[in-house]
Design goal:
The chain is built from 5 helices and 23 strands. It is mostly beta strands.
């Protein structure tokens, strides 16, 4: 077993060692991974939550097991902006790249500057205003806070397997919004169906998960819900209200059940 840290803004996790294989999910910059076999320039990795897939080997900064353990223990801050542009060494000393909402960084501040640590060493400047909170030290959250965060993704292109404001799918939206607030949910909608507790449709409130065949959305409370919609091609707010311009009769008919994550 080898170890590494994702060193680019976001990398695809494929079902096999080839870019033509299905995109299962993605991993953001700074994600620690365990590395299994390597084939054709791809490495089979395991994410901290146990999710597995193949990503390009060049997107991983190799580290020792001890280095990875130390990295995992260190205090981290999340990016709160949809994206923030930074300049620093990924492949060259003057690279510019984006960091996306929810990316976890090891941050230090001195002499009025805020910097984060690159997986391969070195520090890169970042705006303090783009950062949110220490991971694991979040305030008490509510369904309304969950929905406010999900609105950051409005207009984000639909991308099967995506987890960032560059492209996201339905279960990725649910996972990343809750993760941003310190609650870890399963990656795929088939597994998210077992999260939380059941609630009746007429009792749903903001932040509840709404399930349909092969699809999941977040209730905004009442008839409205936010979701990464393949049909719409992006993250949108739709409605169960037949009089609303954004009414989705297919999802109204196809509604299966709801689950509540936040008591």
């Amino acid at each position: 077993m080898q170890y590494g840290i994702i060193k680019i803004p976001v990398t695809d996790l494929r079902s096999g060692p080839d870019s033509a294989q299905e995109r299962l999910s993605q991993a953001l910059f700074g994600t620690p991974v365990k590395i299994g076999s390597t084939q054709k320039g791809f490495s089979r990795v395991v994410l901290p939550e146990g999710y597995r897939g193949w990503c390009r080997s060049g997107h991983i900064e190799p580290v020792t097991k001890n280095r990875l353990a130390q990295y995992a223990k260190r205090r981290k801050i999340r990016v709160k902006a949809a994206s923030v542009r930074v300049r620093g060494p990924v492949y060259g000393p003057k690279d510019q790249f984006l960091l996306y909402l929810g990316t976890e960084l090891i941050v230090s501040s001195s002499a009025g500057e805020t910097r984060f640590e690159m997986p391969g060493g070195g520090m890169v400047r970042i705006s303090q205003s783009a950062l949110k909170m220490q991971v694991g030290k979040n305030r008490k959250i509510s369904g309304r806070i969950i929905i406010n965060t999900s609105r950051i993704f409005l207009g984000t292109p639909y991308l099967w397997g995506g987890i960032s404001p560059a492209g996201i799918d339905c279960s990725g939206l649910v996972q990343m919004v809750y993760r941003f607030h310190g609650l870890e949910l399963a990656r795929d909608s088939r597994d998210q169906r077992r999260e939380g507790i059941a609630v009746k449709r007429d009792s749903v409130r903001a932040g509840d998960l709404l399930f349909f065949p092969g699809h999941v959305a977040l209730s905004c409370g009442g008839n409205r819900f936010i979701h990464a919609s393949a049909q719409r091609g992006m993250t949108v707010i739709d409605s169960f209200d037949s009089e609303a311009p954004n009414y989705r009769p297919d999802l109204d008919r196809g509604f299966e059940f709801a689950r509540r994550i936040i008591p």
